[in-house]
Amino acid sequence: MKTLLKYLHLTGLMMRNCFVRELQFKANFVVRFFTELMWLVMQFIYIQVMYGQTGQIAGWNKWEMIVLMGTNYVIAQLFEALFYDNCVRLTDQIRQGDLDFNLIKPINTQFLVSLRYTDYASIVNSSVGLAVILFALGKLGIGVSLGGALLFGALVLNSVLIYYSILFILSVWTFWIGRSNNLMELYWQFGQFSRYPGDIYPWLLRKLLWTLIPMLVVSNVPAGLLIHKLQNGWIFYGFALGAGFLAFTVWIWQKGLQRYRSASS
Amino acid sequence: MPIIEVEHLTKIYRTQKRLPGLGGAVQGLFNREYTEVRAVDDVSFTIEEGELVGFLGPNGAGKTTTLKMLSGILYPTSGKARVMGFTPSERKNDYRRQFALVMGQKNQLWWDLPAQESLYLNKEIYGVEDEAYQKVLDEMTELLQVKKLLGIMVRELSLGERMKFELIASLLHRPRVLLLDEPTIGLDVVAQKNIREFIKEYNQKTKTTIILTSHYMNDIQALCDRVVVINHGHKIFDGRLDDVVEKFSQSKLITVSFKNGNISKDQLAPLGNVLEYTQVKAVLKVPRDQVKKTSNDLLTNFEVDDINIEEVPIEEVIEMVFKEGDQ
Amino acid sequence: MIAATKTSANSAFHKYWVILSTRTQEDMAYRANYVFGAIFRFLPLVTMIFLWWAVYNGRKESGASPLIGGMTYEDMVVYNTLMYVARGFSSVPGTMSDISKDIKDGLLNRYLIKPINYLWYQVMYRLAHKLVFWYIALLTFPPIFLLMRNYFSHWPTLWEWAVFVVSLFIAFSIGMLFCSMVGMLAFWFLEISGFLFVVMMLEFFMSGQLIPLNILPVYLHRFLFYAPFGYEGYWPCMILMGKVPQDQLVPVLLVGFLWVAVFYGLSRWMWNMGLKRYSAVGG
Ligand SMILES: Nc1ncnc2c1ncn2[C@@H]1O[C@H](COP(=O)(O)OP(=O)(O)OP(=O)(O)O)[C@@H](O)[C@H]1O
Ligand SMILES: [Mg+2]
Q: Which ligand is nearest to the CA of B13?
C-alpha cells in the first residue's frame, strides 16, 4: 500500500513536471488538439460515406458504429496521452544508450520509463471522444446506469493498458533488432482493426484479433457494453487478457535489459 | 572487508561487421558477420571504504564500461563484481539507493525544466526526507556556487553549471559509493578546479568511496592516491600514482647549470640524451640506474653551478604507458 | 555499380549518386526494420477489404445494386491494392518535416555552402528511400497480386500501361514538389510541425486513398477530379483498371503535367523568396 502511494505520488510529480513543461509550448498544444480533432472528423466522414451505401455493416447501424468510433477514440487518446510518447522515446533510449540514469534509480525502471512524459492535448481530446459517445447514445435512445458507466471506465482503462502492453513489447524489441521506428508505426496500423465491428473479419483473423493481437478486445468490448451487444463473459475475458499482457511486459522487459548495450559512451 | 570487489570482470561487445559501399549494405541484409570487442578483459581489483581511486586509460580502454558494470547498467559477460555486498546487475533497490553515477557525457536532468524540478523528483525517487534534502541542497549549492541558478531552465545552463547540478542530483541521497566518469570533461580550468576541490572535500568529509575517471592528469594528481591503469580492457597497473612513474619510466631528468657558459653540446652528448641545451643550462634524460654515475661525472668534469634530478613529467609517462599497451 | 560510379566520377550527377547510395546503405543496415515495415504496411489493406465486403454484403441483403460508383466489390479490392503501388511513388514520408527542420534549425547553411542544389539533394535522398522501398516491395507485391489475380477483371492495354507509367512519374513529381513546398513554409512560419499532420491527412483524403474520389458526394468529387492530389493515387489506379474512358486518358495526363509545371514553378519561386528571407534573417 505504501509503495503504491509512493508510485502514485511519483506519477503525479512527473505529470506536474510535464504540465510545467507544456506551458512553454502553448501553440503546439493547440495545433495538436485540432489535428486530432480533424482526424475524428475524417473518420466521421468515412462512416458517413459508407453508410450512404448501406443501412447496416455486419449488423451495426450507423450510430452504433459511431459509439464504437468514439470509444476507440477515447481509448486511443488516453493511451497516447500517457504512454505513446514514452514508448517511442523508449526505442530511442534503448538504441542511443540513454537508459543509463533510469537504470540506477532505486525504483521500478519500467514504471519510470513508461510514465515519464504526458501529452496533455490528448487528454483534452479524449473528452471530445466522450462527447461523441454520449451524442450517439442519445441518438440510439440508450441510457447508461452509474454501474454501467463505472464498468465502462474500468474497461477503457483496461484497453489503454492493453495498448500500452503491445506497444511496450514492440519498443522492447529494439533490444534485439537494434531499431524499431517502423514497429512503432504498427500502432497506427494495428489500430485500424479496432475501428470496426469484429464481425466484418473472417473467422481466423477474428480469432487472432480477439487473442494474440487483441485489437477487438480493446474497442469492441467497452463499446459492446454500452450498446448491449456483448455477453458478460467477454468482460471477464477482457480483464484477464489485460492482466496477462501486462505480466508479459514485465517479463520481456527484464529479458531485454540483459541485452542493453548503453551505446555512445 | 573491501567495499568494492571485482574478480575477472569481462565484457565483450558483439557488433555487426559492415562491408563498405552499397554492395556491402545489400549483402548485410542477408548475412551478417560479427566482430567481438573485448572492452573489459579479465579485470580484478578491490577497493576499501573511503578510498578515492582514479581510473586511467586512453580512449576506448574500457573505463566507462567497467563503471557501467559496477552500476548494474551493463551485465558482465563473465566474472564477478560485488559492491557493498550486492551484485550490481541484480539492480536491487537497496543497492541503488546507496550509490550514484555521474557521467560527464550524459545528463539526467530534465532538459526543459529548471534544475530544481529534477532535483526534487530525485529526492522523491530516493525517498530523501524533507529536512535532509534541504540541508544537502543548501550545502552543495553553496559549495558549488550555483544557488542562484536553481530556477533556470536546464537547457539554458552552461556545461559547467549543468555538471554541478548533475553532481548535486547524484549526491542528494548521500551515496556510500560514488562513480564519476569524466566529471570535468569540457569544462574550463576554473570550473575544473572547482569541481575537483569539491570532490576532494566531499571525500574527506563524508568518507564516501569514489572512483573517478578523467583524461586530465591534474584531476588525478590532485585527487587520487591510488590509480588503476587500464588499456585495451586489461588492467596494467594498480597502485600509488608515484609508483606508476617508477615502474614505467626508465629514465630521470637531470637539469644542470654551469658556472661559465662555454660547454658545447657535444661534450654533454656521451652522458645522456640532451633534451634542452643553452650555453649555461642543459636538461639530460638519463636511464634510472645511470643517474648516480652521470651526476658524478657532471660534477667532476664540469664546473657545475646547480644540479637538479627529477622524475619525467607524469603526462609523458602515462603517454608512454598507453603507447606501450598498443604494441 | 562500381563501374558506373567510376565512369561518372566527373559528371555532375556523380555526387547525387553518392548521396543516393549512402542513404540506401543507411536504410539497409536495419534489416529487420524493413522486413517488418514491408509486411505490416499491408495491414490497413486488410481492414479496408473486409469493411468493403461488409458494405457490399449489406447492399446485397437489402437488394440494392452491387455497384458502388460503378465498381464491383472486386474492383474495390483491386483499387485499394493498386493504391499501394501509386502511393509507393507519390508518398515521400519525412520530406516535409525534414525540410522544415533544416530551415528552422538553421541546418540549411550546411547545404548552402556545399556545391549542391538543396532541392535536388532532397529529391535524390527521397529517391534513395523509394529505391529501398521498391527493392523490398518487389518481394512482397508479386505474391499479393498473384493471390488476387481473379479480382482483376480488366487486363490493361499496352496504351493503358504506357499512360499508367507516365502517371506514376506525375505521382512522384507532384508528391515530391508538394511536400517540398509545404516544408518550405517554414521560411515564413516558425512552427509548422503540427500543421504538417493536417496537410498529410488532407492529402490522404484528397488523393483517394481513403475513399475512391468518384464515390464522394458530387460537389466534392467534381472539384477533386481537377485537383492535383488525385494524381497521387486515384488517377494511376483508375487508369490501370480501365475505368478512365479512352478519350479521356490524354486529357487526364495533360492536367497532371500542368500541375507538375505549376508546382515546379511555385516551388522554385518559394525557394528563391524563402532564401532571400533566410539570409536576411541570418538563418
Ligand atoms: N555499446 C557498445 N557497443 C559496442 N562497443 C562498445 C560499446 N561501448 C563501448 N564499446 C567499445 O568498448 C571499448 C571500451 O569502451 P569504453 O567506453 O569503456 O572506453 P573508455 O575507457 O571509457 O574510453 P573513453 O576514454 O574514450 O571514454 C571501446 O573499444 C568501444 O569501442
Ligand atoms: Mg569513457
A: 1
